[in-house]
Amino acid sequence: MSLLDVRELDVRHGLLHAVRGVSVAVEGGGTVALVGANGAGKSTLLRTIAGGHRPSHGSIFFDGVDVTRVPAHKRVGLGIGLVPEGRHLFLSLTVEENLRVAARPGYWTVERVLDAFPLLADRRRSRAVNLSGGERQATAIGRTLMANPRLLLLDEVSLGLAPVAVDDVYRSLQTVIEQGTTVLLVEQDLGRAMGIAQRVICMLEGRLVLEGTADELTRERVTEAYFGLGRVVA
Amino acid sequence: MSAVAAPAEAQPARPKVQRWTRTSLAFAAGMLALVVLLALVPYWFGPNTTEKLTELFVLVILAAMWNVLAGYGGLVSVGQQAFIGIGAYAVIVLTDHGINGYLAVVLAALFCGLVSLPTSLLVFRLRGGQFAIGMWVVAELFRLLVTNDQSIGGGTGRSLDVLNVYAPADRQAYTYWVALGLMAVLLFLGLILLRSRLGSSLQAIRDDERAAESVGVPVAWAKRVVFLLAAVGCGAAGAITIANTLIVTPASIFSVQWSAFMIFMVLVGGLGTFEGPVLGALVLFGIQQEFSNDGSWYLVGLGAVAILVTLILPRGLWGFLVDRFHIRLVPVGYTLRQLLGAQARSDGQ
Amino acid sequence: MTYVDAVIQGILLGGLYALFACGLSLMFGVMRIINLAHGDLALLGTFMVLLVTEHVGLSPFAALVIVLPGAALAGYALQYLIFNRSLRGGELSPMLATFGLSVVIGNVLLEAFSADTHSLSAGALTTASWRISSQISISALSAVIFAVAVVVLVGLQLMLSYTQLGRQMRATADDPATAELVGINSKRVYGVAAAIALATAALAGTFFGMRSSFDPTLGPSQLIFAFEAVVIGGLGSLWGTLVGGIALGVAQTVGAQAFGASWSIFCGHALFLAVLAFRSQGIFAAREATA
Questions:
Q1: Taking an 8 Å Cβ-Cβ cutoff, which residues of chain B contact chain C?
Q2: Proportion of chain B above pLDDT 90, given as a percent
Q3: What's the half-sphere exposure (Cβ side, CA atoms, 13 Å) at B205?
Q4: d(CA C265, CA C267)
Q5: Is residue B269 part of a domain?
Q6: Which structural domain range is residue C34 located in?
Q7: Given an 8 Å threshold on Cβ–Cβ distance, is C182 in contact with A76?
Q8: What is the secondary structure of C105-131 as a DSSP string?
Q9: Å from A211 to nearest chain C CA?
C-alpha cells in the first residue's frame, strides 16, 4: 500500500481550475519529483495534500486513512510536512524559535537540524527577517523537518538561491532521504530533479501528462511533456 | 473599458458601456417624483408627521454618510458623533450671534467640514480598528470641551430658543423642508462622488491601498474628501436634530449610541451599496417607533442583530437581494451590453 | 496635593490602565482584532464579582477565584462563536461584530443592574496607606494594583518569549496560514489568547471597582483608556503598554492638579492626540509587521 494515494483530485482557485483529475501514488521511502511549467498546478497540488486548500473533488489517502477533510494542523500530526513555496518563515521569530515552534518527537531535533544545515550554525538566535535567501530556505526546510514528517513535501526549494546554496540544500536532502523519509518535491531544474528522484511526474495545465522512473525517462521526453509538445491540437 | 472580442460568426457591432439601465432610469425618475411628493407633505399632514419624518431623514443622512465613509472609503469610524455634536452646538453658537436659525443649520454643517480637515491630519495616522477608536476619542474630547464650557450650557445643555419666533406648525414645516433639502443634496453629492473618478479611486483603495497608490491613485486626498463629506453630513444631521427637538445636552448629542445606530443601519441595509443604507434607515426607524419604550432591551436587540448580520449576511439585506436577484437601482455600476438583444452582463461592483 | 504626589498617584493609576490594556494589546497582537467590547467585558467581570460577593458573601478577592476562570472560558467561547467567524468576513467584520457585542453587553448590564452606582469593598486595603512624607501617602490598594499589573505584564511577556504557547502565538500572529501548515492549531491559539485577554480584563475591572464606584455605562470609557495606553506606549509591545498606561495616568492626575478635576480626562486625550501627532508609532515603536 502506498504511503500517499491521491485519487482524481480537482482543486479550484476561485475561477481557475488549478488541478484537474490528478491521481498519483507515492510509495513509502520513495522520492518523487514533480515537474512542470509555472502555473501547471504543482504548488496547488502540494498545498492541497498538506491541507492548505480544499479540493472540490477527489480524495487524499495517507497511510490508508482518508485525510481529504482533515485540517492542516492535524495532518502534520499524522506525518505530512510541507515546505511551502516562498518559505513563509515566521519573521519575528528567531531561527531557533522557528524550529522549536514546529517541533514534534522524533529523529530531528534542533541540534540535528543545525548539524544538517551548517550555514545556520551561528544564526540560531537571529530573527528570520534578517536572514539571507539561502539561510531562509535552510530554516524553512529545517522547520518542517522538526515535525518529523513521514512524507516531506518540498515546493521549489531552489527558487531564488545561488547555485552553491542549492547544492547545500540538496546535500541535506540526501540525509533526509537516507533517513527513510518519503519525499515529493517540486523542482523547476530538471537536472536536479532527475538526479535526486527515483520517479518523475510531469504536470501541464493542471493535468498529469507524464509519469515514469528516472531511468526510463529521457530528458527529451520530459521536456516535451513539460511544454506540451506531444499534444494533439484540438 | 475596451471592447470584448466578438466570437467568430457574431455581429460586427462593438458592445456599448452603459451607466444607466432601464431600471435605474425609472428609479431616478421615481426618486425625483418622491422628493416632490415629500416636499408637499407639510400641506397634507400635521406637525407630528413632519417631525417623525424629519427624524427619519436624519437617520437616512447618517446611514448614507457612514456608508460612504466605511463602505466606500474603508474608514470605519466609531466617532462620527463628534461631528453630530459639533453641528448641533455650532447652530447654538451661530444663533447666539444673531444668525438666522435655518441658515445656521447649513453653516453648521459646513463648519463641520472645516473642522474635519485638521482632524483628518491627526486621525489618518491610525489605521483600521485604531482609526475607529481614535475617532471615538476625538468625539469624547469634543464632548469634554463642550461640557466644560458654561457659555454654551456646560453639562446641562442648551435649548434653541431662536426658532420660537415661528409658530410651531410653521417651524416644524420649515425644519422639515430644510431636512428634506439637505438629505436630497447630500445623497445626490454622495451619488456624484461614487460615479466620478473619485468613486473608482475609492474602490481601488478599498481593494488594495498600496497597489492603488502605485498606479497614481491620490489615496490621502480621496480619503480626505470622503471624510469631509461624512463630516458635513453628520454635522447637518446634528444641526437638524437640534432644530427639530429644540434642546441638546452634550451627553446625548455626543453619545456613542449614534455610532451604534449608524453601524446598525448600514450593516443591516448593506455596506458598500448605495441603496442599502436607506433600507437600513427605514428598518431602524420602524424599530424605533415600535420599541423605543422598551428601554435598553431594544438596544440589546439592535446590537445582537448587528452581530448576526455581520457574521451571517455580511452584505446586509440589500446586498443579499442584489446577489439573489441581480437588481441594481442606482446607477453606480457599469453594464456591458451586447447590442443585438443578448443578455446584459453586469460588470460593476 | 502637590505635583510630586500627583505624579506618584498617576504612576499607580497607570498600573491599572496597563492591566486594562494588556488584554486589548494581546488580542490585537495575536489576532489583529481591536476588541471594541473590551471595556464592557471588563465591566462585566466587575459586575460578576459584585454578584458573587452579594450572593455568596465572599470578599472580592475570593470572588476572583470563581470569576477569573469563568472569564477565561467566556473568552475562549467568544473566540469560537464570534471572533473567529468575523475574521473570515474581512477587515471590517471584527470591528463591527465587537462593537455589536459592546452594545449588547453594556445594555444587558444596564437592564440587569440599572444605572445605579456600585462599588466593591477591598476590605482593609481600602483605607491602609503608607505615609512617605508630610504630603505624600500611597494607598495600599493602589500599590497592590500596580504590583499585580507589573506581575501580570511580566508574566505575559515571559510566556510569549519563552514558552511553546508563546511561540505559537507569535508565529500565528505572523502568518496564520503557515502556522497551520507546521502543526499549530490556530483556532486554539486564538482561543487561548482571548481567554487570557478576558481574564485580565475581568481582573482590571475588579480592581477598578474597588478603587472607585462604577455603573454599567462605564465600559466604553475604559476601552478608550486602554486603547490610549496601548497607542501611547506603542503597539505590539507589552512594556509599551505598561509605560503607556503610566504616561496616561500621570497625564490625567497632573492635568487634574494643574487645571482642575474636570479636565483630568481631557488631558489624557490631549496626550494621546499629541503622541499621534508627533510620534504615531508610540514610545516603544515595535517591529513593523513584515519585511
A1: 70, 74, 76, 78, 121-123, 125-126, 128-130, 132-134, 136-138, 140-141, 144-145, 147-148, 256, 259-260, 263, 267, 271, 295-297, 299-300, 302-307, 310-311, 314
A2: 31
A3: 24
A4: 5
A5: yes
A6: 3-278
A7: yes
A8: HHHHHHHHH-S--B----GGGGT-EEE
A9: 28
Distance from CA of C13 to the nearest CA of A (A): 32
CA distance B99 to C42: 47
Give the residue extent of every domain in chain A: 4-227
B305: closest CA among A228, A230, C99? Answer: C99
Cβ–Cβ contact C185 with A under 8 A:
yes
Q: Name the pTM for this structure.
A: 0.85
Give, in degrees to the nearest 5, the angle at Cα C86 between B266 and C83: 125
| B273 Rama class: left (phi>0) / alpha (psi -120 to 50) / beta | beta
- Residue numbers in B near C224 (CB within 8 A): 133, 136-137, 140
**What averages of pLDDT result for each successive group of 10 residues across chain C (291 residues)?**
86 95 91 90 95 89 93 94 82 83 92 88 77 78 93 94 95 93 94 96 95 90 92 83 94 92 90 83 54 27
Within-domain flag for B256: yes
pLDDT at B337: 54
- Residue B273: the pLDDT is 79
Which partners does chain C have (≥3 C-beta pairs < 8 Å)? Answer: A, B
Indicate yes or no: CB of C36 within 8 angstroms of CB of B132: yes
Which of helix, strand or coil describes residue C192? helix
Q: Is residue C286 part of a domain?
A: no
> According to the model, what pLDDT value does residue B260 have?
86
Distance of CA B161 to the CA centre of its chain: 28
Structurally, chain C folds into a number of domains equal to: 1
> Under a CB-based contact definition with an 8 Å cutoff, are residues C148 and C203 in contact?
yes
The C-alpha cell that represents B325 in the structure block: 436577484
Look at strands B345-346 and B335-337 and give their pairing. Answer: antiparallel
The set of cell numbers assigned to B230 is 461624512
Q: Across the interface, do C182 and A77 touch by the CB < 8 Å criterion?
A: no
Report the CATH number at residue B129: 1.10.3470
- Tell me which architecture the domain covering A4-227 has in CATH: 3-Layer(aba) Sandwich (3.40)
Give the range of the structural domain holding residue B218, as residue numbers without chain letter. Answer: 20-333
Percent of chain A at pLDDT > 70 equals: 98
Angle (CA) C166-C15-C230 rounded to 5° is 60
* Residue B12 lies inside a defined structural domain of this protein: no
Q: Does A73 touch chain C (CB under 8 A)?
A: yes
Q: Which of C34, C82, C265 sits opposite B133 (nearest CB)?
A: C34
